[in-house]
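Tokens as discussed.
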């Protein structure tokens, strides 16, 4: 866990009723085709993601970075972060991992494909996921689909994800809402406590 301090909300967490924050591909050098359009949108989302990150850490809930290896098959998490920060990267700097956060390197779009995420989440007692990061229409969408098939409750805040274009982002969010039952309300419209409370009604 990110924090070892006991919180009142932890009473029900032992039964597998926990929420986790998944931060997708925000440790990023933005050196790929389309990055010029995506980066400013990712920077805007990074502020919201940072707020969620700190809130989850305050509650002692798991924060899990799920990040592409960008073809560096021998790389470790620390090297991926270091490489991204070498380029005066405001996006990664805003949401860089902190001690106690988990970091999973993925080889494909979905955070569940060929990673230990499907093993880690049950070990942490997680049944609810907040997905954020980039890109809404690719890695966020594929991860949400795999999470839905595993019966995880989903919140994908529309202001904490980013795509290369507004049109593609809206399209992906509509699919996640209609086909995967994901809540896509912005963090400015709903708090984590309100989302969790709504799941019990």
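Sequence:
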């Amino acid at each position: 866990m990110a924090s070892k301090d006991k919180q009142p909300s932890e009473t029900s967490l032992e039964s597998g009723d926990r929420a986790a924050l998944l931060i997708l591909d925000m440790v990023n050098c933005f050196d790929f085709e389309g990055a010029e359009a995506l980066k400013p949108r990712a920077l805007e989302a990074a502020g919201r993601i940072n707020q969620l990150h700190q809130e989850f850490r305050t509650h002692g809930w798991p924060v899990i970075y799920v990040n592409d290896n960008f073809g560096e098959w021998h790389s470790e998490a620390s090297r991926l972060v270091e490489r991204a920060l070498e380029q005066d990267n405001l996006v990664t700097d805003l949401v860089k991992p902190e001690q106690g956060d988990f970091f999973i390197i993925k080889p494909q779009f979905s955070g569940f494909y060929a990673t230990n995420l499907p093993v880690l989440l049950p070990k942490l007692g997680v049944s609810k996921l907040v997905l954020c990061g980039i890109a809404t229409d690719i890695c966020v969408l594929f991860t949400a689909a795999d999470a839905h098939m595993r019966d995880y409750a989903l919140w994908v805040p529309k202001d904490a994800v980013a795509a290369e274009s507004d049109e593609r982002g809206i399209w992906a969010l509509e699919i996640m809402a209609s086909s995967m039952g994901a809540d896509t309300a912005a963090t400015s419209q709903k708090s984590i406590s309100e989302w969790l409370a709504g799941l019990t009604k």
